[in-house]
Amino acid sequence: MEISATDVKNLRDMTGAGMMEAKKALTEANGDVEKATALLRERGASIAASKSDRVAANGVIASYVHNSRVGVIVEVMVETDFVARDEKFVMFADQIAMHIAGMSPKYVSADQVPAGENAKDVALLEQPFVLDPSKTVGDFVNEHVAIFKENIQIGHFARLELGAPTHIC
Asked: Which of 50, 163, 166, 169 is 20 to 30 A away from residue 34, measured at CA?
């Protein structure tokens, strides 16, 4: 099956994958965009697992304020300062901050959630991603690990809302 440059570009725009990665996924999926997207997501998770033991000692502090009523700051860590300064990485960190503002997680990961609480409701990485509920925040992070080819970790975050208790994780 012939894969057009337009199809490759569209898949790249949707997933952030590299040109050759997108073309390979479309070829393996016989041009089926949904299957190609799933392949790229699986590869992203695999890449993330292989990089998870690498030290993420650089990063950014991202912030988001919604209607002057909710404010978030979040530490998003990555391996190199080169990636930390990348405009796309900063935008990624801003999207994580926006998600925290909208979805009010209490913990970063499921292993931090006390028994009796539902991890999918309160663990950031387990929540459906606010900008694309078909994936979790963890999936979104893994996609960016595959894009940047570096370990990415969500560190601490704080969420402040007028009239509500401050939550710092």
From this structure: 50
**CATH number of the domain bearing residue 19:** 1.10.8.10
Structural domain that includes position 16: 5-51
| 158 closest CA partner among 68, 66, 73, 60 | 73
Is the distance from CB of 40 to CB of 130 less than 8 angstroms? no
Q: Per-residue pLDDT tens for 95-136?
A: 999 999 999 999 999 999 998 888 888 999 999 999 999 999
Query: Could you tell me if 43 and 146 are in contact, meaning their C-beta atoms sit under 8 angstroms apart?
Result: yes
Span 4-26, average pLDDT: 79
Residue identified by tokens 């999926």 is 29
Cα(42)–Cα(26) distance, rounded to whole angstroms? 14
**What pTM was estimated for this model as a whole?**
0.73
